[in-house]
């Protein structure tokens, strides 16, 4: 078994989709090991998004992530890192596949690629690093 960090981003919480997203995660059979509602500081987000520092979308991304509460989840399961990313769909909800969280629930509008509902760690190294930041 493996662990990953999942975030329901501020757009997901604000739109009342936390329960729907959790239901999809649970239906897949993954285990909620820990869950908390967080209002992330700039410091926490700078650590989380360190690899994106300097990119044009970095500042707007931090502002967006500070715009409201985030639900942080420590999630466990067989190959959950890859599995959750598959469940989430590709980064931009505009073209994410139907059947995925982003494809089914993400809105097709200008900021879709930023406001894409969820985050999931992309490797075992990222998962360990990110879980230590959020929990
Ligand atoms: P995540 O790591 O959040 O699961 P990802 O791995 O699909 O998403 P990354 O490329 O790591 O995407 O980007 C991290 C986050 O930055 C994205 O989830 C999105 O919110 C935002 N982002 C990425 N690319 C853009 C962009 N071109 N414009 C605006 N925001 C972006």
TrEMBL record:
Question: What's one GO BP annotation on this UniProt entry?
Answer: CTP biosynthetic process
EC category: transferase
Cofactor(s) needed by this chain:
Mg(2+)
Origin superkingdom: Bacteria
Q: Which reaction does it catalyse?
A: a 2'-deoxyribonucleoside 5'-diphosphate + ATP = a 2'-deoxyribonucleoside 5'-triphosphate + ADP
Q: Which Gene3D superfamilies match?
A: Nucleoside diphosphate kinase-like domain
What Pfam families does the record tag this protein with?
NDK (PF00334)
The Nucleoside diphosphate kinase-like domain covers 1-135
Q: Return the protein name.
A: Nucleoside diphosphate kinase
Source species of the chain: Microbacterium stercoris
Name the gene behind this protein. Answer: ndk
């Amino acid at each position: 078994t493996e662990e990953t960090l999942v975030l329901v981003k501020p757009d997901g919480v604000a739109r009342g989709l936390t329960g729907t997203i959790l239901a999809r995660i649970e239906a897949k059979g993954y285990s909620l090991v820990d869950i908390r509602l967080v209002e992330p500081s700039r410091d926490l987000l700078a650590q989380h998004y360190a690899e994106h520092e300097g990119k044009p979308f970095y500042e707007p991304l931090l502002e967006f992530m500070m715009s409201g509460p985030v639900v942080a989840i420590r999630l466990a399961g067989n190959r959950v890192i890859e599995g959750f990313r598959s469940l989430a769909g590709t980064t931009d909800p505009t073209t994410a596949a139907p059947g995925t969280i982003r494809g089914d629930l993400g809105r097709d509008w200008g900021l879709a690629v930023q406001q894409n509902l969820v985050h999931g760690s992309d490797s075992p190294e990222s998962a360990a690093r990110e879980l230590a930041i959020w929990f």
